[in-house]
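Long-time lurker, first post. I've been practising inverse folding by hand and with some scripts of my own, and I keep getting stuck on stretches where the structure tokens seem ambiguous. Below is the full token string for one chain I'm working on. Before anyone asks, I'm not after the true native sequence, just a reasonable design that respects the backbone. If someone could post their per-position residues I'd love to compare against what I wrote down in my notebook.
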């Protein structure tokens, strides 16, 4: 029975019996193993004209050569390719007849063509799907407000903005129809350089800030500068007066001293579609909630929420905590922790359908800056963020105080001048807010400790001070402070430096290293400010250390050393489930 006959008898597609041999690069007929073959080759018939049963058959006409050359059984003995299984000589294949050439050719064309079609179809589908996802992405310019985009070998700062714009299916019922939206929910996500930890800093929408001048690219390609607005709510940094996300970026930089690399803007639909894509997220309530404003109605305990219910959860504020925006921030941090846990769980990562749904939902719901406006760039960012362990992602909020200007009814807040700068400085210094230790931070700490080993007396230090970009009068301020507060009488200020510098530097000759370490310790300068080199002659003709105050100089007595420990503030980590009350 030939291949076709065997295939029909055993309900096997004949095309499946022709298999590509990777060693030869050619297709071979492989019969089903269910029909055992004799391992002994059939003897060659002495008389070619005699049939299998001894009968006589008509001699065939002249053999027609195959398209690529002579028929296989007309070739001399072929060498077996190295690594290929040993085969019987052509024409003596283990007790089976060779298929007719016409049928064999059709099978090869059929199988090879199908395989090629499948490969092309898969490749085309992959390309078309990536193109489809790219087409989903909406992006706008950062107008030069960012760093130029995140980098894999540096710490990452991403500004996440949740807008209360009511566009999208089912969102007009939430009120404020036609609103251009505000920067309603704002989180500055800092990911450490070594990817060992991250800090998500929530910025209250009702925080009073100065919104700076904002150059904004217009539809025609021109740039319009939206003028600064002092003493306004943070949420007005987006949407109002034509402000784009780049204005919110500039406001964050003005507030914290941290320049975001990129931004992502999410609308109401992002919450609904992302939670549905992952099959819901699990949240916990410490009490029954029936909020008529957000329409959240849940009993005390744990619930799996998605879609409209998830949106109601993150919008709830009157029924939790003190009933204000700060209480809602805590609820949103709880929700984001639950979402991260779900995204990192095996039920999501090992489910291709969910992953595709997440990609579809995210690319449709997010607006990003033009530096990360492709699937490839978002994938690279996702891989960096994916290195995080939820237990090392800390959520905290900018420390604030009630705004005294509000009078009796408190509607807005102001930055807490005592603790907020410490939080900002810790994030700028890439300090972990969790227990995880950073290799880079350990190195910096060890280097800074060397500064405290000086045996020089303050009265022995001779230093010339120049202003290299610090605020006007800083050099004289530093001299006065060193002489009156630190006992460094041999200090003098010599005006502006020849060239502005971004970082404060302390240059000294080799024999002045001990004095330089003492001065750096007195002024709170980091080890990175130390610059071995040459001294200069002061007004008395004596060698003096050269201190150049850079743009980072914050004032006499204000340390420039990066903190080694995060301040003690209210915080939570993404791995722990908290119940809202």
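-- Answer (accepted) --
I ran through it position by position. Result:
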């Amino acid at each position: 029975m030939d291949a076709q006959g065997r295939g029909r008898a055993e309900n096997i597609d004949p095309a499946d019996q022709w298999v590509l041999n990777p060693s030869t690069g050619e297709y071979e007929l492989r019969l089903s193993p269910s029909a055992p073959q004799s391992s002994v080759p059939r003897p060659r018939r002495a008389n070619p004209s005699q049939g299998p049963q001894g009968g006589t058959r008509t001699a065939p006409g002249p053999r027609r050569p195959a398209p690529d050359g002579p028929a296989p059984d007309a070739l001399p003995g072929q060498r077996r390719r190295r690594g290929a299984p040993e085969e019987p000589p052509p024409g003596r294949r283990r007790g089976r007849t060779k298929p007719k050439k016409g049928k064999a050719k059709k099978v090869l064309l059929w199988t090879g063509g199908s395989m090629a079609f499948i490969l092309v179809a898969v490749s085309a589908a992959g390309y078309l799907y990536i193109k489809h996802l790219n087409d989903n992405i909406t992006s706008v310019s950062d107008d030069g407000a960012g760093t130029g985009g995140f980098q894999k070998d540096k710490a990452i700062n991403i500004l996440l903005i949740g807008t209360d714009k009511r566009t999208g299916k089912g969102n007009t019922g939430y009120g404020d129809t036609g609103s251009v939206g505000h920067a309603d929910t704002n989180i500055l996500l800092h990911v450490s350089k070594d990817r060992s930890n991250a800090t998500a800093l929530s910025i209250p929408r009702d925080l009073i800030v100065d919104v700076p001048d904002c150059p904004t690219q217009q539809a025609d390609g021109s740039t319009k500068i939206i003028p600064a607005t002092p003493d306004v709510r943070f949420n007005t940094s987006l949407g109002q007066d034509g402000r784009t996300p780049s204005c919110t970026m500039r406001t964050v930089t003005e507030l914290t001293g941290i320049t975001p690399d990129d931004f992502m803007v999410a609308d109401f639909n992002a919450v609904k579609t992302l939670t549905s894509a992952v099959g819901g997220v699990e949240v916990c309530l410490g009490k029954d909630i029936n909020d008529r404003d957000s329409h959240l109605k849940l009993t005390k305990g744990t619930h799996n929420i998605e879609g409209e219910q998830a949106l109601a959860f993150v919008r709830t504020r009157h029924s939790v905590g003190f009933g204000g925006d700060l209480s809602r921030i805590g609820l949103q941090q709880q929700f984001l922790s639950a979402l991260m846990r779900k995204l990192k769980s095996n039920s999501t990562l090992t489910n291709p359908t969910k992953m595709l749904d997440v990609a579809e939902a995210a690319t449709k719901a997010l607006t990003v800056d033009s530096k990360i406006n492709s699937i490839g760039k978002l994938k690279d960012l996702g891989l960096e963020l994916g290195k995080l362990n939820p237990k090392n992602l800390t959520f905290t909020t900018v420390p604030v105080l009630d705004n005294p200007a509000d009078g009796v009814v408190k509607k807005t807040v102001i930055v807490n001048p005592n603790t907020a700068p410490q939080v900002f400085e810790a994030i700028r210094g890439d300090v972990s807010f969790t227990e995880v230790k950073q290799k880079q931070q350990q190195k910096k700490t060890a280097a800074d400790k060397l500064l405290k080993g000086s045996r020089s007396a303050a009265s022995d230090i001779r230093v010339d001070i120049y202003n290299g970009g610090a605020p006007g009068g800083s050099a004289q301020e530093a001299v006065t402070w060193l002489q009156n507060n630190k006992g460094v009488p041999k200090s003098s200020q010599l005006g502006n430096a020849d060239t502005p510098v971004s970082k404060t530097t302390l240059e000294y000759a080799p024999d002045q290293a001990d004095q330089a370490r003492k001065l750096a310790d007195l002024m709170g300068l980091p080890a990175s400010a130390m610059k071995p080199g040459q001294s200069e002659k002061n007004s008395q003709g004596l060698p003096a250390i050269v201190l150049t105050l850079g743009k980072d100089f914050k004032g006499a007595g204000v340390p420039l050393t990066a903190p080694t420990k995060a301040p003690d503030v209210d915080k939570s980590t993404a791995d722990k489930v908290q119940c809202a009350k």
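A couple of notes from the structure itself: The longest helix spans residues 101-136. DSSP finds 13 helices and 27 strands in the chain. Happy to go over any region you disagree with.
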